[in-house]
Design goal:
mainly alpha; about 60% helix; transmembrane helix; tight junction; cell membrane
Length: about 140
């Protein structure tokens, strides 16, 4: 069987993948440009925020899994053991890719969470004028 830290990292990555998958679905439903779901922009923005929260949770699960594995590699490297120096582990590119993916996922989820409308703007309608009032010519 595999070591406990590897199984834990694997479980966190599977949870992260599932959260990211559901985050994509919820975010697509919550986009203003889609016709799926409710037509109310406030409800759609709340759905987009829920997708952003799922992305943030997915990024945090990825960050926890990669950092747990990196901590274990660091512990094994500096531990006094009978393992020869040339057989010890080192950080690989997959760890750095994992940290980068986790940070980008958290950043993307944060940007989706910023799409929530402000409370003071709710209920107000904004109409676009055909021409600005300064561009009209008065004869």
């Amino acid at each position: 069987t595999l070591a406990v830290h590897i199984q834990t990292s694997r479980a966190l990555m599977v949870i992260s993948l599932l959260l990211g998958f559901f985050g994509i679905i919820v975010s697509v439903v919550g986009m203003k440009c889609t016709k799926v779901g409710e037509e109310d922009p406030i409800t759609k923005s709340r759905i987009a925020v829920a997708g952003g929260v799922l992305f943030i949770l997915s990024g945090l699960c990825t960050l926890a899994a990669v950092s747990l594995y990196a901590t274990r590699v660091t512990y094994e490297f500096f531990r006094e053991s009978t393992v020869p120096i040339n057989a010890r582990y080192e950080f690989g590119s997959a760890l750095f890719i994992g940290w980068g993916a986790a940070s980008l996922t958290v950043l993307g989820g944060s940007l989706l969470c910023c799409s929530c409308p402000a409370k003071e703007r709710r209920g107000q309608q904004y109409y676009r004028q055909s021409q600005p009032s300064t561009a009209r010519e008065y004869v």
